[in-house]
Design a protein that fits this description.
35% of the residues lie in helices and 19% in strands. By secondary structure, it is an alpha+beta fold. The protein has a four-stranded antiparallel β-sheet. The protein has a two-stranded antiparallel ribbon with strand order 2-3. The longest helix is centred in the N-terminal third of the chain and has 19 residues. The N terminus is likely disordered.
C-alpha cells in the first residue's frame, strides 16, 4: 500500500517532537515516487504516482511529480478518465486505503467561495468558478486534500485539518486566498432595534 502513513509512520506526540522529519517528508515522497514511477514523462500517467503526488504538501515542489500531474490535468481537461493504480485493489484509482477522483467544478455549489464569481450577464446572473475541476484524495475513508485545477495549468490545494496535522507543513495558498476573500466581505450592518 502506498499511503502517507507508509511514508511517515511517526504520529502523535513523537511526530510533533520530530520537526526535522516533517521537513524531510517531501524529499522522502520524491524518492518514493521516483522508485514507483521510474518512467519517462511521455508514458501514460500512473495512478499510484498521481495519488502520492497529490497527497504531498506541495506537488509542484517535487520534480518527479510535475510531469505526471501536469499530464493528469491535461488529460482530465480533454475528458480522459482518471488513471488507475496498477497495484490497486478493486476500484478505480485505489491502492487500498487511498483513492482519488475528479469532479467538475460547478459554482456556487462545488467551488470554494474565494474562487466563485457572480457575473451579471444576459439573460440573468450566473456563477463562474476560477477552476475547472477538483481532484479529491481520500485516505482511510476521509477526505485528505482537494486540488482545484484549471485548463491553464493553475492549481491550488485545499488541505483538511487532518492532512495539515499529519504533514506539518503544506502549501498555504488556498488558506491565504480564503483569508483575503473573507477580509474583503462587507461587514454586516448592525441590528437596529425598532
Amino acid at each position: 500500500m502506498h499511503t502517507l502513513a507508509t511514508l511517515d509512520p511517526v504520529s502523535g506526540p513523537a511526530k510533533r517532537a520530530d520537526l526535522g522529519r516533517r521537513s524531510a517528508l517531501p524529499y522522502a515522497l520524491a524518492a518514493f515516487v521516483t522508485l514507483v514511477c521510474n518512467c519517462p514523462a511521455a508514458h501514460a500517467v500512473d495512478g499510484c504516482t498521481v495519488l502520492l503526488c497529490l497527497a504531498a504538501p506541495k506537488w509542484s515542489a517535487i520534480p518527479q511529480c510535475v510531469p505526471p500531474i501536469r499530464q493528469l490535468f491535461h488529460d482530465l481537461a480533454r475528458g480522459r478518465s482518471f488513471p488507475t493504480c496498477k497495484m490497486s485493489n478493486a476500484g478505480n484509482s485505489s491502492n487500498g486505503n487511498t483513492t482519488a477522483s475528479n469532479a467538475w467544478a460547478q459554482a456556487p455549489t462545488l467551488c470554494p467561495p474565494q474562487y466563485t464569481h457572480l457575473l451579471d450577464i444576459d439573460p440573468g446572473p450566473a456563477y463562474r468558478c476560477d477552476y475547472t475541476g477538483a481532484v479529491s484524495v481520500v485516505i482511510n475513508g476521509a477526505l485528505f486534500a482537494r486540488t482545484w485545477w484549471n485548463t491553464t495549468g493553475q492549481t491550488v490545494t485545499e488541505f483538511t485539518p487532518a492532512a495539515k496535522a499529519q504533514l506539518g507543513t503544506w502549501d498555504p495558498q488556498f488558506d491565504v486566498d480564503y483569508a483575503a476573500w473573507l477580509a474583503a466581505q462587507p461587514t454586516p450592518a448592525p441590528d437596529n432595534p425598532r
